[in-house]
Amino acid sequence: MAGFLRIEQMRAGFSKSEEKIADYILENESKIPKFNVKEFADSVGTSTASIVRFAKKLGYQSFVEFRLGFLEYLKESESGTTVYEAVEKSDSMGDIIDKISSGNSKAILDTAGSLNADMVARAVDAIIKSERVFFFGVGQSALVAEDFQLKLMRIGKDSIFYKDTHSQLASSVHLKKGDLAIGISNSGSSIEVFKALEKAKSKGATIISITTLGRNPISQLADMDFHTIAEEKNYRTGAIVSRMAQLTIVDILFIGVARMSFDEVRDDIKETRSMVEGLKRV
């Protein structure tokens, strides 16, 4: 089902031909499993090669795999097993618990399933080898950036995050080769994050981005780009779900870093915990 969420999330990066295919799929869901590739192409008014390329862009190996995936998606929708829906004013607390937990769980699993293990390994290596790690993010993404920075600080990694966006932009001037800049933006188009990463890149820093799926200005700047898959609904649950997906990527990268020097990291975490434990008791 994640493949079909990608249609909306990747739309900004589609060519005109791909937009035409996407529109047809979303307007004619029930017809898709009945088509072979030629029938589908004829119905859309495009070539079979374009249909196959579109399926591969969504993460499928072939049109047949795409069609089977779509059939599974329709069965889930009809059976009601897809619980996550928009939160409505009339919902009970039980409904809200089910919808939010289902949405968060789905975003975590879909995002994890889209990650490339080789790229994760490259990013972990870049964090370990960097002299300093700078974080850039605004709004909800700033909370995720701060979470990542605090995790790295606890294991002794030189990491910097400024909550004030002007300070973030000013700090980007001081990055240099050997530094790492991590930009987090759900939309992939936050102007403050884009400008900070653009400056960091011009200074020779390595760039990692965490954004929504598809082509966007921030991911295009990155040496390693990670994408969240989170279905946005109303009542701001989209912000909740995307944040959970971002935190999943952050935790995977952090544990990857910690694993490389486990004994050292364990001692660092124990020592940092001991510094504040006594303050938690009256």
Automatic annotation (TrEMBL):
**GO MF annotation: an example:** carbohydrate derivative binding
Q: What is this protein called?
A: RpiR family transcriptional regulator
Q: Where is the HTH rpiR-type domain?
A: 1-77
> PANTHER family under this entry?
GLUCOKINASE (PTHR30514), HTH-TYPE TRANSCRIPTIONAL REGULATOR HEXR-RELATED (PTHR30514:SF1)
* Sorted UniProt keywords: DNA-binding, Transcription, Transcription regulation
List, alphabetically, the Gene3D superfamilies matched: Glucose-6-phosphate isomerase like protein, domain 1 (3.40.50.10490), Winged helix-like DNA-binding domain superfamily/Winged helix DNA-binding domain (1.10.10.10)
One GO BP annotation here?
Answer: carbohydrate derivative metabolic process
